[in-house]
Amino acid sequence: MGIWKSGRRSFNAAQLLMLSMLACFVAVMTQVPPASAQQLVQIDASSSYVDPSNQNLAGPVTANMGPHPGKLMANVLLPDGYTPKKRYPLLLLLHGSGERFDSWADPLLGDIANTAKGLDAVIVMPEGAQGFYTDWWKNGERSNPAWEDYIREGLLPLVQERFSIRPERQYHAIAGFSMGGFGTWLTSSMLPGFFGTSVPLSAFASIRTEESILFFATAAGGTPYDTVYGPSSGFYAEGHDPVALGSNLAHTNLDVYTGDGEPDPAVRPQNDPANPGFVTEGDSISLLLESFLKLQNDDAVAAMKAAGNTTVDYTVHKGSHDWEFWRPDLKAAIAKGLFRPVEEQPAAWTYRTAASEGQAWDIYFNFSPAPTAITTFERNGRTLKVSGSGYLSIFDGNGCSYAGDLPFTRTLPAKPCRGLKLQATGKLRKGKSRKITVTVKGMNAAGVTAPVDAARVSIGGRSAVTAYNGKATLKVRPKKSGKLTLKVTKAGFRPGTKKLSVRR
Known about the structure:
It contains 10 helices and 25 strands.
């Protein structure tokens, strides 16, 4: 029976009581703010470093997916209550071969909304095609595609520009499975000064074993091994093999997970040889693959420990090469703490690479022409020793540059070679609270004056830290008229100051 009819209607006492209770309920509900929720956004992360038209982009993996858009897209999961007024940790989450940028978010696959539920971080899930997150060798061209350059110079700067990310190394983590596990090993070893924690899951952990070379063309969608790495005995393959790069990760938190290839039907029923899915869903092959990758991760973990890493946590469990195991493994890593303390800038480190350019901790480097051997950087305090061959240019954390033929040993300058430039908008008045917006710029590794992130801005007893766009806003209430000194500081730069007038 409806409550309202045309014309006037009378209500008995019980009906009036129910209406009163309903009105109270509605009033209370309309006053309760909506619950915060994770938000999944999709961004176009296209870049000149990778032409998607010559990459193997996966079609729909589940019924939830449509055709691939044909661009380098990235899914970004924002945490509950995300606001650009706060800065968040970053998790870069990589997919495996045959998957795509939206696999981690798919409820039937990575189910990241539940897998990472409660994680107060920005989770970025980029497209990796079947490129193994590597700058392809291609007879020495080392590009087209250049996946390493794409992540370092394209994706990460874009993410930092679009979203509010904490700048400290401690708050940057990377994880991924299978091919994405290899990308996790490789990317964290190439950027140890950026990622504090690395979480390879069921990862390809070496690309120079006989089994890896034999299996590679299948994992890479038909791309020949030599196209990506050159000869397996060559320096370029060595410089992309995690087992050979243990020294790069000596100061990184490492959480490594893999199955041992033994069936675990309790987690995945198809693991049971009696289950029809054991054959039709490829579990026999999946179990064999996982046992093969377990041996690779044994070797990689041993290499990390031999290089002096004391934070390696290696978890081996039953199971196959499937999502049912990757989801709980990532959950376990999250529970352990993706953003636990880590040394921000070690005084002594060793870094090996086959790259033509990159970032060894706070040392940006560039070869011209490209190197033909492994390059080893060894730093102890202010002393930098570089061995290898070729002509190398470096730009250190103090903004000082040097170039010369290898090998060389260089004492890095103790004082910054660059300064901070600042602009301020807003007018100050005695006894009045006013906002001052400050823009800070300085020279970057490319020798270009650009916005400076995480610079400390101070004036009148108040301070703030600049965002990725170099801006910071402070609310100041001067006690007297005259002049106030605005000061900007950041390690690696000479401080910048500016006098601001305070009116009566």
